[in-house]
Amino acid sequence: MRKLVYLIACSIDGFIGDPGGDASSMYGFVEGEYQTWTLDEYPETFPAPYLASLGRADAPPKRFDTVVMGRGTYQVGLDAGLPSTYGSLREIVASRSLTESPYPNVELVREDLPARVRELKAEDGPLDIWLCGGAEIAGVLREEIDEIVIKTYPQVYGSGLPMFGSGFAVSDFALEEVHTFPNGVLVRRYVRKR
Where do the Bacterial bifunctional deaminase-reductase C-terminal domain residues begin and end (predicted)? Predict the structure, then answer.
């Protein structure tokens, strides 16, 4: 069975964006050894135009063939003129406000996102599903998440969007990997204990 992997960037104090959802202060850390590692391990998590600028536009997906995101996360790409930010991936967007998909590989889910994710996980295939964000969607899908990959950037926000926008409930995960980089970025991979 395929896994839902919540791969997310956050500040040291656990915020994925400022109070308005902006995480652009973290972009400056995507350089050097950390950028090389991320491009090697998770190339499909970079926007398609960025991969093209690096000469990697034709690189096949390595870990994911589908990305799930909320309307706010999707809007960042739309605002940049990208109706399909991750061109090689099937994009699942949870939205009640969009009435029709702006691009062929973008599927809108208006109701029961957990059920749709369970269907995706049951599909055949060697690649997993990337939960891109945001906080509200992560909260809705918390019980469906099989792995969490946290890219912690050396910044403190003080307040903002938490990793999970949901009520209190304990879910146990086991630490599987830790990677540290010279620029202060720390990447941890956790697997759900079932």
Answer: 3-186
